[in-house]
Write a structure and sequence with these properties.
By secondary structure, this protein is an alpha/beta fold. The protein has helices at about 10-20, 35-40, 60-70, 85-95, 105-115, and strands at about 1-5, 25-30, 50, 75-80, 95-100. It contains five helices and five strands; from the N terminus they run βαβαβαβαβα. A five-stranded parallel beta sheet has the order 2-1-3-4-5, sandwiched between helices. Helix 2 packs parallel to helix 3 (about 60-70). It is globular and about 35 Å long. About 35% of the residues are buried.
């Protein structure tokens, strides 16, 4: 499964990418929404995108809308460590799942498989 991971916390995104790769996922990561959009515009395709909700520039919710416009088949999961109740309500409507940080890797793996329809 190809996973796009977008988060502005560089250490977090690199650690999560490595942990998912050890579990058999193919992971590409970006630290900004603009970089993620560039990947899609260059023709890269992903089964699922894990998006941080709060990022400088393009936030996760806006990024999800743009990515979906470019690739309607992509599935989405939001990650957040700072979400407000309103963010949760909006995010819950926009994505299939909304996972809080700190993340539990087994829950992320289970959610990825569920969203992709392989579990």
């Amino acid at each position: 499964m190809n996973v796009l991971l977008v988060d502005d916390e560089k250490k977090f995104v690199m650690m999560l990418a490595k942990r998912l790769e050890l579990r058999g996922f193919q992971v590409t990561f970006a630290n900004t929404g603009a970089d993620a959009l560039d990947l899609i515009k260059k023709g890269e395709r992903f089964d699922v995108a894990l998006l941080d909700v709060k990022m400088p520039g393009i936030g996760g919710i806006e990024l999800r809308r743009e990515l979906h416009r470019l690739d309607p088949d992509m599935k989405f999961i939001f990650l957040t460590g700072h979400g407000s109740d309103n963010d949760y309500l909006v995010g819950d409507k926009e994505a299939m799942h909304y996972l809080p940080k700190p993340i539990k890797i087994d829950l992320v793996v289970k959610t990825l498989l569920e969203v992709a329809g392989t579990n």
